[in-house]
Amino acid sequence: MTAEVAVPTPAAAGLARPAARLSVSSLIRISLYWLGLSSVFIGLSQILDGRMATGALGPDAQREVGGTLFRLTVAGSVIAALVQPTVGVLSDYTASRWGRRKPYIVIGSTLDLVFLAGIALSSDLVAIAAFIMLLQVSANFAQGPFQGYIPDLVPAEQTGIASSLVGLFSVLGQVCGFGIAAAALATDSFALGTVALGLLEFAMMFSVVVRVPDGPPAPDRAGRSWIGVVREAWGSDILRQRNFLLIVASRLLILMGGTMLINFSPLFLMRTLGIEQHATFAPNLMLIAAVVVGNAIAVIPAGRIGDRIGRRPVVWAACLVAASGMALCATASGNGTLPPQGILGAGLFGTGMGAFLSVDWALLTSVVPGASSGRYMGISNVATAMAGVFSIATGGPLLDAVDAGSFGNGARAAFVLAVAYLILGMLPLIWVKEPRRTQPIPAAA
Known about the structure:
- With 445 residues, this protein is mostly helical.
- The chain has one domain (24-220, 238-431): MFS general substrate transporter like domains (Growth Hormone, Chain: A, Up-down Bundle), CATH 1.20.1250.
- The chain has 15 helices and no strands.
- The longest helix has 33 residues, at 373-405.
């Protein structure tokens, strides 16, 4: 009987989380790129909603907005789920004078701008779907490696504040994307709005490339080919990381609920509340402001509370707050105006999601092997990529079916479904064993 030879992983190679503390300005620079990344798909979804609802992409798309949006995005989301972990693990082993992560970030961000311009200039649904698939490849080509930066550079005792900043800038990015899309919808400037999303991401990319350190050097591949490294990304050893898998399952469900408001808010304003397209800019700004205020209130305190009492209780509380906000939006009524109940609901939703995003990254990074962070954080972001498509796949047909029988109530039904997802997302964390802050990061299986 022959002995099995262990294949060295980055974690097994002796690379550990850094010990040197970073300044707040360094932590902010690391997080700024999240603002650009988060704005792209949120803003694009809103702009596509507007283009379809106004008939700019044809009568069939106007009649079935939810179903058409799903068909446009489903293939791209599957691509995202495959690309991000694969490129993430490649970056773990990449040696260049720019470091492990930066080459991928620069290439991906540049291509994002090109493909967004293609979407902006296309009026055919097949062409738009093709460019969305290409955009998912390029965006996740950058995002997979970038997600390794916090485990690369941030010591364990600063994970809480770093995660809070990631949450803050992720939400601010969503707000920027939301605002760009709202302006595009109100002014019929859909092409300009789409390109503006790419320019914002490209500008934020410089915060990483110019000012963020390279991080630790890549470990030796131990004679393996790059194909062998890619196979590592999808190795079955990850199935033994029980805590990690439970957190990813929770993240998927929570983000499915959390993306419902973003995906369908234009239809909520126009169909449910009866607001004319040209008058949607101000109500959209009110929703944005409510979400921002909620996030500003929650994001930093939630991170600090999570450091003290644990991250799971904060996630549970965040889900309940976000769900209550979605319930308020679902039951809001307005005759051509956005009622105070809708603003309050958006504020509570923002508070809950801000608290969730603030501690979710800290919880994830506490259970992944630090030097294999590109692989593990890439796989965790499969939940992010698929949350949007599952949200649209379930909420979109439900919205269309309800609107067909009771026009204007489709968005309400989608928001009720979001409440259910947020509650279900709490359950997997019951079985998660959260490591203490003083415990070392676990080695890869």
